[in-house]
User: What shape does this take?
Amino acid sequence: MRQTDKFPVDGPNSLWQMYRTVSRWKAVRNFVCIQISRYTPSLPMKRWIYRHMLGMRVGHQTSFALMVMVDVFFPERIEVGDNTIIGYNSTILTHEYLIKEYRIGTVRIGSHVMIGANTTILPGVTIGDHAVIGAGSVVHKNVAPYSFVAGNPLQVIRQDVRVNLADLQE
Assistant: This one.
């Protein structure tokens, strides 16, 4: 289950009130850094921007493909382990602005994870080590280590991706 903190709002929907939760300066600075990262083909440069400009925790040899969109308001709540791949045009959100409330949750992505292109990861989820997320998925709940999940709604395709290679050759 997703772990988010909920904050009720009075008046207009919470998105109209977003600058009560995050400063305009932070939003503009983060937006510029994210847009540079989205188009930069240099993986070390992307990791540097994510770590040093946005405050994300990003492991060694982790790769963000072109056009990956990280949360513009709370990127510091994204944690990614070592040797993980985030696929083309994927989105990682740590906030949800709803009508009567907004929610904020940390996204934790383990090590050696493969996230397919065009995947959306919602706030407050944890993706375990060695998991595989199919392209185009919406990750709305936690993903167990070593599992292969895909779709919208997210479904477990395989509970354990560790395969004996000899079995594949038969």
The mean pLDDT is 94.
